[in-house]
């Protein structure tokens, strides 16, 4: 990627001199004789312009270097800035570095000093970019984004999600906090025809009404105090792709009406603007609230509910997905191994039993946190019950029968019944859960006279 150098100085001779030297070294250079011209260019240009460095003079008539630096940091916070200053303004250069300037050059400076500073800045930017790419790659390896659906109840949800993914229909995902609503939304996007476009997510409950409106629709310069420039909203950022509205049940009535217009007409008006803009976005919304009750209570618009709920997905809590607990735990263990270089590679069977016995009020998010905690506290390569929170191991002890150990035959029968129930009597899956062959399971089912229709004592 090309890394250009911007130079801003009000002296034409210095601009020509610096441009000639840097172009001769193979750099792409663009010069500005006024900070106002520079700021206008940055404001109108794309935030993805391949710019690596700005050489900024400290003393200029239109706007001094300190004020220009403040504006540049707002427009392009990643842009490296080197101040150029005379001997009498070194204190100001130091102040500029406190405001975010990377370095400063004292005039007159030799060519060697200029080249050294420029190359050091661009090498630093390239290193930061490589680090960002590496973190992205590691994140992708740690979390490939595939849904883990061993349990029949969750597999049905995933199958429905895959059926609706290729369409442009709106999807409403319901479920308790931590059940994986955003993971499902991202999976739908990746399986859709919009997969090459952006997936943009926003938590509607995390922002005030005013800030949420500005974030969604954008604003024009002067729309409110502090709106120094035009700002795109995430609706425009998601154009051609998918917009995920998390916690849609917390959106105010006024914003509900504006969202309904986008869903119906495909257009919106930025804050402070008068003309509408058109946008092509696929909507996926999620909430942990019962929206039908919210509609009945008058807190959520009925027309918006039906627009969003073209396809409804109800995610089961983790306590109803017993067959998913162990594979999820192993998945998070692998994720932590990449994220923290953890030495933990396996989960002790007793720890697995504790995880399966727990009720998981925080759902999948809580399970991930527990595994992260366990990998930090575990000694060696095995995550044991000692590394789990006390409440998990305590629940296992409470669940144990007070009368003492069960007869071996009864304990065996209960485990088989439990495995069959969790897999909806899929014997192949139940055998895998129990760690036995399908043939052995068939023999045990016959031995204990088990059948799906027959009532069984609590396992």
UniProtKB/TrEMBL annotation:
Sigma-54 factor interaction domain sequence ranges: 147-376
Residues that bear 4-aspartylphosphate: 57
Response regulatory domain sequence ranges: 4-122
Top-rank taxon: Bacteria
Compartments (UniProt record): Cytoplasm
Name of a matching Pfam family: AAA_lid_14
Region forming the signal peptide: none
Organism name: Geoalkalibacter halelectricus
Keyword check for Oxidoreductase: no
InterPro entries attached to this UniProt entry: AAA+_ATPase, AAA_lid_NorR, CheY-like_superfamily, Homeodomain-like_sf, HTH_Fis, P-loop_NTPase, Sig_transdc_resp-reg_receiver, Sigma_54_int
Keywords carried by this UniProt record: Activator, ATP-binding, Cytoplasm, DNA-binding, Nitrogen fixation, Nucleotide-binding, Phosphoprotein, Repressor, Transcription, Transcription regulation, Two-component regulatory system
SMART domains from the UniProt entry: AAA (SM00382), REC (SM00448)
Designated name of the protein: DNA-binding transcriptional regulator NtrC
The keyword Lipid metabolism belongs to this UniProt entry's keyword annotation: no
């Amino acid at each position: 990627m090309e890394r250009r150098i911007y130079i801003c100085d009000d002296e034409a001779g210095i601009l020509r001199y610096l441009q000639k030297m840097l172009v001769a070294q193979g750099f792409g250079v663009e010069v500005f004789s006024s900070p106002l011209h520079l700021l206008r260019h940055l404001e109108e240009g794309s935030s993805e312009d391949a710019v690596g460095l700005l050489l900024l003079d400290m003393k200029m008539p239109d706007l001094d270097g300190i004020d220009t630096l403040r504006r540049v940091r707002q427009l392009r916070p990643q842009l490296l800035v080197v101040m150029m200053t005379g001997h009498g303004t070194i204190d100001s250069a130091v102040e500029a570095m406190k405001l975010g300037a990377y370095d400063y050059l004292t005039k007159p400076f030799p060519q060697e000093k200029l080249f050294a500073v420029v190359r050091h800045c661009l090498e630093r930017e390239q290193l930061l970019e490589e680090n960002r790419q590496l973190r992205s790659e590691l994140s992708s390896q740690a979390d490939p984004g595939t849904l883990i659906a061993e349990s029949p109840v969750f597999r049905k949800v995933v199958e429905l999600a895959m059926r609706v993914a290729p369409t442009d229909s709106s999807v409403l995902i319901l479920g308790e906090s931590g059940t994986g609503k955003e993971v499902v939304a991202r999976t739908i996007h990746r399986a859709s025809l919009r997969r090459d476009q952006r997936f943009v997510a926003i938590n509607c409950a995390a922002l005030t009404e005013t800030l949420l409106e500005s974030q969604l629709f954008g604003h024009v310069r002067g729309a409110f105090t502090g709106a120094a420039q035009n700002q795109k909203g995430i609706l425009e950022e998601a154009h051609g792709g998918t917009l995920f509205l998390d916690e849609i049940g917390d959106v105010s009535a006024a914003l509900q009406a504006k969202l309904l217009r986008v869903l119906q007409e495909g257009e919106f008006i930025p804050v402070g603007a008068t003309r509408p803009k058109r946008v092509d976005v696929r909507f996926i919304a999620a909430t942990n609230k019962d929206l039908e009750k919210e509609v009945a209570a008058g807190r959520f618009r009925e027309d918006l509910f039906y627009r969003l709920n073209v396809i409804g997905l109800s995610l089961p809590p983790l306590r109803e997905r017993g067959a998913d607990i162990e594979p999820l735990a192993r998945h998070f263990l692998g994720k932590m191994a990449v994220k923290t270089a953890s030495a933990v590679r396996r989960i002790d069977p007793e720890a697995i039993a504790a995880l399966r016995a727990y009720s998981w009020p925080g759902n999948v998010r809580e399970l991930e946190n527990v595994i992260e905690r366990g990998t930090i506290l575990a000694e060696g390569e095995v995550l044991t019950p000692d590394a789990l929170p006390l409440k998990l191991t305590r629940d296992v002890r409470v669940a144990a029968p007070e009368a003492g150990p069960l007869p071996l035959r009864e304990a065996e029968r209960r485990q088989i019944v439990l495995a069959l129930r969790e897999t909806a009597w899929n014997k192949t899956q139940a055998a895998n859960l129990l760690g036995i062959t399908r043939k052995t399971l068939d023999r045990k089912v016959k031995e204990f006279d088990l059948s799906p229709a027959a009532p069984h004592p609590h396992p």
